[in-house]
UniProtKB/TrEMBL annotation:
One of its GO terms (molecular function) is transaminase activity. Residues 32-380 form the Aminotransferase class I/classII large domain. Keywords: Aminotransferase, Transferase. Belongs to the class-I pyridoxal-phosphate-dependent aminotransferase family. InterPro entries: Aminotransferase_I/II_large (IPR004839), LL-DAP_aminotransferase (IPR050881), NHTrfase_class1_PyrdxlP-BS (IPR004838), PyrdxlP-dep_Trfase (IPR015424), PyrdxlP-dep_Trfase_major (IPR015421), PyrdxlP-dep_Trfase_small (IPR015422). Its cofactor is pyridoxal 5'-phosphate. Gene3D superfamilies: Aspartate Aminotransferase, domain 1 (3.90.1150.10), Type I PLP-dependent aspartate aminotransferase-like (Major domain) (3.40.640.10). This is Aminotransferase. Its EC number is 2.6.1.-. Pfam families: Aminotran_1_2. It comes from the Bacteria. The lineage of its organism: Bacteria, Pseudomonadati, Bacteroidota, Cytophagia, Cytophagales.
Amino acid sequence: MIEVANRIAEVKEYYFSKKLDEIREMNARGCDVINLGIGSPDLPPAKQVTDKLVQSASQPHTHAYQSYRSIPELRSAISDFYSRHYDVQLNSATEVLPLLGSKEGVMYISMAFLNPGDTVLIPNPGYPAYRTAADMMGAKAVYVDLKEENSWFPDLENLDPEVLTSAKMMWVNYPNMPTGQKASAEMFVKLAAFAQKHNILVVNDNPYSFILNDQPMSLLSASGAMENCLELNSMSKAFNMAGWRVGMVCGREEYVNAILRVKSNVDSGMFKPVQEAAVEALNLPDSWFDEVNLEYAQRRKLAERILDILGCTYDAKQSGMFVWAKIPVGQKSEDFIEEVLQERFVFITPGTIFGSNGEGYVRISLCANKEMFNTAIERLEMVKA
Ligand SMILES: Cc1ncc(COP(=O)(O)O)c(C=O)c1O
């Protein structure tokens, strides 16, 4: 038996990977679990996008390895998209790098900038991949509290000065997952100034800005942000293309080049038909987002009904494809979701998988159809009767 490398000794299997196995077992026993846990869009991409994929894949010349930087048309479509939707001007040749999903970007950015022992600031609660990537680099993860009373925004003025001196990188994610909190323009200005003042690379992970959000924003729109900030973005959520693996990192040329140095030694480019179809998606009119959001708004109402039945409270103005809610006082998130799973066969996510500040909260995903939500409501209402 060969021992695994130290870098993964502390890394645990992803929560959902284990939980989904458990749900599969329950289903094999006939439980028919309704999964309101995971944020994988169930709706299809736009027809012109899938048509483009098929048409491109049927061409003989589209199957070779592709450039590590991707085709120029995709980089241009990304910079046009940033200009049109976020009012951010990017040089498509130097300041845009398509990725095989933004999760890949979390790892590549960490590999490009973190030495063993470097301090990286990570939001609590937050997307678990930031911590895992830090652990794999041998970096020191320091959690930054996000609290409801501070609108789930880090208290930048009161961070430990010693930590600020040693920190090299900081992850932020607005609109925030799991809390659904949107950033304001002032928040982004503060973050850009913070990055400059403390010489910290601040990376905003921005996959949710088009879901249930009237004002999509990019951290890169804040004055001075191009200096020390990067932004990850994704086509997984806004375009229903999660399985396609298309994301991007945008920002200063030197930083993008550093990430490219890692990436070009790990993957060998993105399938050309996927790139061409992604261009099609990025050029979709605003009505695409209106359509998707109409469905999510209806589902959100049903999710809120579930939370009402469960005695949870929530902010009705959240962004993104989840509803984050506070469970009744005195209960533990994991016990709470376990009871709902075992007794009613409905799976929702415990807030604790996003960090200790997620204790007392749960997250419901909107990636299930209305029929499933209605069945979940029926099951939960039966409990109350
Ligand atoms: C906050 C956050 N960042 C990144 C990702 C990964 O997205 P992608 O599919 O682009 O890798 C997710 C996916 O759930 C997420 O919630």
